[in-house]
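This section describes the prediction task in plain terms. A model, or a person checking by hand, is given the sequence of a single protein chain and must write out its three-dimensional structure as a string of tokens. No templates, partner chains or ligands are provided. The sample shown here is typical of the held-out split.
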Amino acid sequence: MQFDDDAQLDSSQVTDERGSGPSGGGLGGGFGLPGGKGGLLGLILAVIAGLIGVPLALTDGGSNSSTTPSNAVSGNGGGSSAVTAGALAGKCRTGADANASDDCRAVAVVNSVQDYWSGYFARNGQKYPPAQTVIYSGATRTGCGNATSAVGPFYCPADRTVYLDLGFWQELRTKFGARGGPFAQAYVIAHEYGHHIQNLTGAIRNAQGSQQGANSGSVRVELQADCYAGLWAHAATTTKDANGRVLIKDLTKQDIADGLDAASAVGDDRIQKEFQGRVTPETWTHGSAAQRQKWFLTGYQTGDFKACDTFSGAI
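The expected answer:
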């Protein structure tokens, strides 16, 4: 994935809270987000129960023993240098910066994803309400309560914000076994923005019926977010900056392969086999590796919003 060196980045869409967020001493008040599989499973069940003020995360967290404690401070991963809170505007100005830095790549991907959805809404006679992205390390306060890095990337419907600890890019490789790469990172961000679209359209409320299992409402929510990530990928090279310049000038077959590899790495079956030694489909909340790849590809290959209906029929 190559950004146009001269494209202009809009860093106002991303807030850098590293160094300024809560740390240490546990989670405190609000809707706490305990790390690990059990904690995130509880969050998913709350979503299905209709508590829209709780987050939707990319994974179920793996095993409790492998998650980050609430007082840990993770690095920002991927080899990029740390920046102080609020410094993104000075550091991330152009596509060249995005090609050189994980921090700026996150800004550029957010810009691209939101330009895609803004265009989609406009073509359908609607105005797209943008979501903010917050980059944090260790722990942060959200409209859904306090969160730690153990949750992984997530979207909070209550404040319409995507939360990223960029240390997850390293975890994606070392903990979940993905190859990594710039587009794997982009897939993660686009998936979380897929939840923003679901929040706007009311699709989250369609998660009816059983709360766990291969055909559960929670799985259908997550697979649709994967499909929406694929929709963005389908049109990624047409997205533009505020001046009308193309943001992403090249998206290769290898990029898409890296995205599919990341989608597979965070499949419920793959995570369960790695962390508990057995696969239990009756407890799935996000979908299998094959399902996640299938629905990302559905969005990518068709570019059709209607094709992402995971709430009808088999998945």
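For orientation: Residues 135 and 217 are 29 Å apart (CA to CA).
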